[in-house]
Amino acid sequence: MKKKLITRRDFLREGASFAAASSLMLQLPHTVFSQEEKKSRVVLIRNEDMLDEDNQPHEEIIGKMLDQAVSALFNTTTAEEAWKKLFKPTDIVGIKSNVWHYLATPPALEKVISQGLKTAGVSEKNMGIDDRDVLSNPIFQKATALINVRPIRTHYWSGVGTLLKNYIMFVKKPAAYHGDTCADLAKLWKLPVVRDKTRLNILVMLTPLFHSVGPHSYNPQYTWPYQGLLVGLDPVAVDATGVRILMAKRRDYFQEDRPLNPPAKHVFLADTRHHLGVADPAKIDLIKLGWQDDVLI
Q1: Which residue from 186, 155, 180, 153 is spatially nearest to 168, judged by alpha carbons?
Q2: Which has the higher per-residue pLDDT, 32 or 164?
Q3: What's the Cα-to-Cα distance from 217 to each of 154, 214, 239, rounded to whole Å?
Q4: Banded model confidence at residue 37, pLDDT cuts 50, 70, 90
Q5: How many CB atoms lie within 10 A of CB 81?
Q6: Best CA proximity match to 86, nearest among 138, 17, 7
Q7: Is residue 266 a contact partner of residue 181, using CB atoms and an 8 Å limit?
Q8: Mean pLDDT, to the nearest integer, of 14-37?
Q9: C-alpha span between 167 and 134 (Å, rounded)
Q10: By three-state DSSP, how is residue 210 classified?
């Protein structure tokens, strides 16, 4: 059931408004609060008409969805207010995308994210989109803020490829983080190049890959048109919600519990071992918007 969102008056009374001061953003970089208690807010938004015949999103629809999601995230009247809570005109923003050719971050989504940044007053010269070359990209080298956006999929080394894993390109030797089924990917988020810079996390749930076998495996049989986005400030809460949807789809498809192999332990250890965010659904304020058929959570 959807929780009651905190009002602006409640935000100010509790001293938890992200617009109140930049110091608070640094103190609590990943959390938006529900009214009853402090929880990480995650917005799930879906639209049954989002995808075209090539399974690519309609730009106008996905743009409206993203605006609705950021408005719900901050409980603002307009998307412009929300974008301005997230970014300042002086920010230099790197959009960390994902280019895996079978299931890449859609260009239409990258475009509407850029439009959101312009709404906040960020100039085009101070924003950039990259994946594998972030360490050599001047925008990312100077970035004051990051947006993390990628599709969810099952993964041979980490169980799932999600937002936490998307930052593995911020190190010169990604394989150094593959040990114990990538259990400690949350350490990436404490590196100086990314620490406290991530302002928004978007897990793309358009056509998730819910099953694969072997490295770089992809079979469209194991995708489905979920046509959604998961949006939040806490990457652990967003990833954990995405994993639960993926597991529900696996149960529905295989008609039995079919654990991920390997398990997606890095998502939950990001909470219990590294304290980056929350994975416990009892501590996540999940707001569900739009199309609700077969929502799976």
Answers
A1: 186
A2: 164
A3: 9, 6, 21
A4: low
A5: 17
A6: 17
A7: yes
A8: 37
A9: 9
A10: coil
Helix runs in 22-176, H state only: 22-27, 59-74, 79-86, 107-119, 138-142
Cα–Cα dist 227/151, whole Å: 11
Is pLDDT of 187 > 50? yes
For residue 134, which amino acid is it? V
Sequence ranges of the domains in the chain: 42-290
Give residue-wise pLDDT tens across range 49-79. 999 999 999 999 999 999 999 999 999 999 9
If one counts every other C-beta atom within 10 angstroms of the C-beta of residue 100, the result is: 16
The single-letter DSSP state of residue 88 is -
Helix (H) or strand (E) holding 244: helix 235-254
- Cβ atoms within 10 Å of 192's Cβ, excluding its own: 8
Contact 74, 82 (CB under 8 A): yes
Integer Cα distance of 169 and 167 in angstroms: 5
In the structure encoding, which two tokens stand for residue 285, read together?
A: 């304020």
CA distance 189 to 235: 10
| Higher pLDDT among residues 163 and 1, named by residue | 163
> In percent, how much of the chain has pLDDT > 70?
88
**pLDDT for residue 17 is more than 60:** no
